[in-house]
Amino acid sequence: MILGINIRSITSAAVHIPGGTPRILFSEGENRIGFPTHIIFDSQGDFLRADGRDLEEWSEDSGYVLYHFKNIIGCTYDEIQDGIRKGKRFFYEYKDRVVSGSGGIPLIRLANKTYSPEKIMTFFLGEIRRSAEAVMDEPVDEAVICIPAHFGFSQREAMKKAGLMIFRSVDIIEEPLAAILGCKLDAEARERPMMVFAMGAGTLEVVIAKIGADEVGKPYLIALNKPRSKELGGLDMDYTILEYLMNKNRSLRDNFPAAPLGERRRFVKVIEEARISLSSRPETRIVGVVGKEAIEEFLIQNELEEITADLLKDCENVLRSTLEEANFRASEVGHLILVGDVTRMPAIHKMLNRVFAENTRVVRMLEEKSRMKGWDPWPIEIVAKGAAIYPSVDYKKLAFVVTEVIIPTASYTYGFFYDKFIPLIYKGDAFNQEGVIRRETTAIFPRPDGQIPVILREEIAGGPLYQCMGVFSFFLPLTDTYQVRLGLELTKEELKVIGCHHAVGEIVYPHISTQIDPSKEKNSEVTMLKDIQTLMRETSDMKMGYYATLDIEAIKRRGEDMLKMVQPYLRVPEIVDISSSLSDALYQLKRVTDSGSRLRRQIDQKCVLVLNLVAEAGFVLLMYNLLSPKEYRGTIRLLHQVYRLSF
After folding, report:
1. What is the number of domains present in the chain?
2. Exposure of 77 by Cβ count < 10 A (0-12 exposed, 13-18 middle, 19+ buried)?
């Protein structure tokens, strides 16, 4: 069984999906959803428990309680010390506990015991696993654990290492990706940008992203801005409310600073619960004990909005700067996903309405959440739910849909040839069965292109006769799911493309059949592929499928033109990568041609690389809606004009 786990600052969530229905798990001792994110050790530093049982009886003399351990995982000792010196949130509480181990590895010292951050995380993950197995009465050996989008490689690897100490198999995915999957918006996120607004207890992370698919069909996050974490969250609001109450209540002002740590934590917890309750009611009561003095105050929604006005303004500034960095207007965002209990606040919704005033879809969503008066469950479990869904998501790399086929006679069968003859199917049917069509590398554009021979099969007395009518050559994206919609006109003498959508395609090698003697017995289905591949791939004597001429100067111009096209969008990480690769490939091509090299194969390879990267860059722009389909098709057609094939 698989668990989806989202580890948060205050309360973490775990979800599994028995029978396709998500089920939220909870910790022993807490009559609420989730797992309180803390770990308890005794006075000797030995691990006691990581469950949700009440901490009311705990004191500093009883042992140790660790919070916010997710924030130090994957950090070096020097990084933690630097965070402490700078007053970085959630680092300072480890000021007197962190020591340096061998190789700069940080260790947390509790009495006479020391633990690595990864080991501390295993205590918490182990509690989640035990609770899940107790509830479901079956073993849990796989998990998908979410991390913030701004986590680096070392933090990702450290989290995976900790997970593998508890589970047999672990996947690590970003929280925004899980949020999109949990909302079932992944199909739309492949076409339009989504904004994930995640505001937890201590941090705010805003990510504008789309979803791609890797080479095995698994989703991955395409961040359109650089993910960052800002120290702004529920705790800031709670302490702002506390300061407001201390100014009103002298008893609270006099007693709170000198109260024991546990007592101060409990009163801040009371404030947090009051703030959350104001998401669904106009007023609330704050009741607690500080320094043996009873405290009672009232708070209303409008009052809360005034108290937190500066914090809300900071949130708005983060939102607007994120949109600017990603080069998007608020109206272009496909959907807004809210993560974290703080996002239930009506004041947060008002702020979001100001930013997205021109985006009717987002405004309607916010209105709907306001009508639910804080009972919307999504902010709590959405990320863990998406993590639980992740293993079942499988995007097919290529679906071939034939939209129109004109065949004048039924005495012949047409089909594609790849490993075996696949009869051509008619309008509305799809070549999406496993093993039917696979991406093919070619001599023209090795990576983004595909080539599929189109075959005529004629039934004769001696057995079927196969004739290659040509090869359909088409551009494909490199890393995303793709669908080619193709219209063909086929006769026994000719093959034409009459429509090709979502790809630019043309027929190449139209006379390839003249190189295959149809009278020979070898023209069986078994040997057909070998014959075609030999003709397409043989390079020693420039046989069919290889360049007779290459317009090198035109190829250079295409590369330079594409570099100019991507220049305004270099804030997008993926565009930065492709721009760098294209610039380097152009430099290599100019270098080899300026040197007067006569090595035809070397020049061809450099030309192919530039064309390949221009095609890839064009598709990346199209994927981010920075290039229209018409402009994209025009760009690819220009690439087809820089070479002539040898037949």
Report:
1. 4
2. middle
Euclidean distance between CA atoms 325 and 208, whole angstroms: 10
The answer to whether residues 278 and 301 touch, using CB atoms and an 8 Å cutoff, is yes
pLDDT beyond 90 at 482: no
The tokens for 185 are: 């918006």
Residue 256 counted as domain residue: yes
What is the C-alpha separation between 307 and 240, in angstroms, rounded? 7
Which residue in the block uniquely carries the two structure tokens 């041609």?
593
Last residue of a domain, one of 389, 422, 438: 389
CATH label of the domain that carries residue 53: 3.30.420.40
Q: What angle do CA 289, 292, 294 make, to 5 degrees?
A: 45
Q: What is the pLDDT of residue 444?
A: 24
Domain membership flag for residue 176: no
Phi then psi dihedrals of residue 67, to 5 deg: -120, 165
- Reading the block at residue 520, the tokens are 């020979």
Asked if residue 337 belongs to a domain, the reply is yes
In the numeric block, which tokens belong to residue 87? 């007053």
304 and 240 within one domain = yes
- The tokens describing 269, both together, are 């917890």
Rg (CA), the chain: 31
Residues 282-337: tens digit of each pLDDT? 899 999 999 888 999 999 988 999 999 999 999 999 999 999 988 889 999 999 99
In this structure, what token pair is assigned to residue 379?
């902010």
Indicate whether 142 and 45 sit together in one domain.
yes
CA distance 159 to 480: 27
Alpha-carbon distance of 438 to 443, in angstroms, equals: 16
Domain containing 562 equals 548-645
**Per DSSP, which regions of 407-541 are E strands?**
412-418, 420-423, 430-431, 449-460, 463-475, 482-490, 495-501, 505-508
Distance, first Cα to last Cα, the chain? 57
Torsion sign (Cα): 16, 18, 19, 23:
negative
Specify whether 265 is located in the same domain as 323: yes
In a domain, 172, yes or no: no
Same domain, 528 and 556: no
Distances from the Cα of 457 to the Cα of 13, 390, 417, 467, angstroms: 58, 43, 11, 6
Distance in angstroms (rounded) separating the CA atoms of residues 504 and 637: 7
Q: Please indicate, yes or no, whether residues 443 and 356 belong to a single structural domain of this protein.
A: no
Tokens 């499988």 correspond to: 394
CB 344 within 8 A of CB 184: no
pLDDT-derived band of residue 59, with 50, 70 and 90 as boundaries? low
DSSP annotation string for 548-617: EEE-HHHHHHHHHHHHHHHGGGTTSHHHHHHHHHHHHHHHHHHHHHHTT---HHHHHHHHHHHHHHHHHH
Question: What letter does residue 143 receive in the DSSP assignment?
Answer: E
User: Rounded to whole angstroms, how far apart are CA atoms 197 and 340?
Assistant: 9
- Tell me what pLDDT residue 617 has: 81
Using the 3D structure, point to which of 489, 517, 539 is the last residue of a domain.
Answer: 539
Helix 600-623 and helix 573-594, axial crossing angle in degrees, nearest 10: 160
- Residue 552, both tokens: 């090198």
| Phi, psi for 141 (deg, rounded to 5) | -125, 0
Rounded distance between C-alpha atoms, residue 496 and residue 489, angstroms: 5
On whether both 324 and 208 belong to a single domain, the answer is yes
The whole-number average pLDDT for the span 4-29 is 81
In eight-state DSSP terms, residue 542 is T
Q: What angle, rounded to 10 degrees, do the helices at 360-371 and 346-355 form? A: 170
Mean pLDDT on 101-118: 91
Regarding whether 560 and 435 lie in a shared domain, the answer is: no
Is 226 in contact with 574 (CB distance < 8 Å)? no
Residues 306 and 213 in one domain: yes
